[in-house]
Amino acid sequence: MNAILEQKDLLDLGNAIASSLGRASVLGERVFIQTPVLLPSGSYTVVAIDPQGGGGFRVSDLGQGDDEAFSLDLTSVYHHQAQEIATLSGVAFRDGNITLQNVSHSQLVGAVTVVANAVSRALTQTQLKAEQRRKSEQTQKLIRRLKDIFTPDAVTQEAELKGVSTHRWRVDALVEFQGRKAVFDVVYPHQTSIAFASTKFLDLASREEAPARVAVVHNKKAFSELLTVVAQAANVIEDDASDKTYRSVAEAA
């Protein structure tokens, strides 16, 4: 067993860990801090520190979040989300930059943390909003397809069903035909979407007179090995599958 560390040793240990979490570099009179805050793309947030008059500093992401949103073709969504996050975080969002002005020396650590977290939150919210929009569009496409195959009266959009846990799950579509029930849900190749869909399908599969369960995806290959997680309690089909395939999975037990 390790000997009890002295307070100074613990402080040295803490400082060593803290210093390893970020990196600093200098270009001219500007300091760049690579923070441990991850962006949705997997890259680290980099915050710049510029000296200002009167001994203060300007702390900014120099538009890193804006650049990442541009690469995803989500600039307008990002600007809206960044403005909201900036207001909540007490920072400024202007010309694509998330910024704090006139920061004192003693406030720099906190300011760098606030700016980095604001960028990460704004980009995360941007992707969530974009995914919600895409899901809405894909869900409407799915509903139209199901109505064409099974007739409009057979399809209920955003239906709720109880699982064996008694939790009421919302599904994108419930199809009722020939005394059968089938639920259809659009699933994305993201861990959150996969985990949620898998939990839902497993709970519905365990109830008495369980409905057929169908996960509708755009491209199975995008899921890689995680496709088997979704397939544990549901049939997985691609959205452009034939009418025959849609009928087949709807009739599955």
Task: Write a brief structural summary.
By secondary structure, this protein is of the alpha+beta class. The protein is built from 7 helices and 11 strands. The strands form 2 sheets. Strands 1-2-3-4-6-5 form a 6-stranded antiparallel beta sheet.
Shape: elongated
Number of helices: 7
Give the N-to-C terminal Cα separation.
Answer: 57 Å
Low-confidence stretches: none
Order of helices and strands: HEEEEHHEEHEEEHEHEH
Output the structural class: alpha+beta
Roughly what percent helix? 40-55%
Largest sheet: 6 strands, antiparallel
Which whole number gives the mean pLDDT? 89
Record the strand order, biggest sheet: 1-2-3-4-6-5
What is the number of strand segments? Answer: 11
Question: How are the elements arranged and paired?
Answer:
Blueprint: H1 7-20, E1 23-27, E2 30-38, E3 44-51, E4 57-60, H2 64-71, H3 75-89, E5 92-94, E6 97-103, H4 108-150, E7 155-162, E8 168-177, E9 180-186, H5 191-205, E10 212-217, H6 227-230, E11 235-238, H7 243-250
Parallel strand pairs: 9-10, 10-11
Antiparallel strand pairs: 1-2, 2-3, 3-4, 4-6, 5-6, 7-8, 8-9
Helix pairs in contact: 2-3, 2-4, 3-4
Tag the structure with descriptive keywords.
253 residues; alpha+beta; Trna Endonuclease, Chain: A, domain 1; 2 domains; 5-stranded mixed β-sheet; elongated
How would you characterize this protein structure?
With 253 residues, this protein is α+β, with helices and mostly antiparallel strands. The chain folds into 2 domains: 7-131, no CATH class; 151-250, Trna Endonuclease, Chain: A, domain 1 (3-Layer(aba) Sandwich). 42% of the residues lie in helices and 28% in strands. The chain contains 7 helices and 11 strands. It has helices at 7-20, 64-71, 75-89, 108-150, 191-205, 227-230, 243-250, and strands spanning 23-27, 30-38, 44-51, 57-60, 92-94, 97-103, 155-162, 168-177, 180-186, 212-217, 235-238. The strands form 2 sheets. A 6-stranded antiparallel beta sheet has the order 1-2-3-4-6-5. A 5-stranded mixed beta sheet has the order 7-8-9-10-11, with helices on both faces. Helix 2 (64-71) runs antiparallel to helix 3 and helix 3 (75-89) crosses helix 4. The longest helix is centred in the middle third of the chain and has 43 residues, at 108-150. The radius of gyration is 25 Å and the shape is elongated.
